[in-house]
# Entry
Amino acid sequence: MSKVLVVEDEQHLAEGLRFNLEDEGYRVQVVETGEAALELLRAQPSGFDLVILDVMLPGKDGFAVMSELRGEGQFVPTLMLTARGHPEDVLKGFAAGADDYLTKPFELAILIARLRGLLRRREWLRASLDASPRAPVTEAPPADEFQFGDKTVNFDRLELHVRDQVFPLTLMEANVLRYLIQHEGTPVSRKKMLEEVWGLHEDTDTRAIDNFMVRLRRYIEDDPSHPRHLLTVRGVGYRFIAEPQANLS
Ligand code: CA
# Structure
């Protein structure tokens, strides 16, 4: 039975979520503040399969909670609840490390579908990690990987391998990387990325995407302040280079 942590200070909504999620077969715990959520997840790092995290909370908001968790290496799949009319919140959420988001008010059926999507991915990851070499998971597709320099992105496992280090990626980080890789060598505009990766068509402050890129550079660049793979194209956006030419300093 999957355990869901609901972080929401509006009691009416939190209890509604509990009731309906329990009805769907989930075990649910509700906390009302970001501080309580952090405390709980630190005490039980594998205690939950999913987190539903509201942005608007008293004290620490959802963004702060998200980035603290990810900064501590806690990668429990997290769906953020953002306010309608604040499309920049979506980007802020993804930049902080959220895996998915829903805009309030939302339909319960959609929330459940999103949660199932996040859980399926997690289950698949577990299955592929547990599979012994003697019993290959025959139905598993070939590894979905991309290699550049001494780095390999594994899109199935949401991991970036750098030499002997492994960095977990959020779903959205992997999606952005995939998009950049698909357009390797070509400048892609911030607007296009917002539309095609985030599905945002509203007037979003495209500068918000830059914070996200800072985060990606920390993973994929040896020296994030002198990027060689993820380049800024002035006045346009970004360009991904898989194999930068040597000796350019
Ligand atoms: Ca709230």
The chain has a mean pLDDT of 87. The longest strand covers residues 78-83. Residues 142-247 form a domain with the Arc Repressor Mutant, subunit A fold (CATH 1.10.10.10). The CA atoms of residues 236 and 244 lie 20 Å apart.
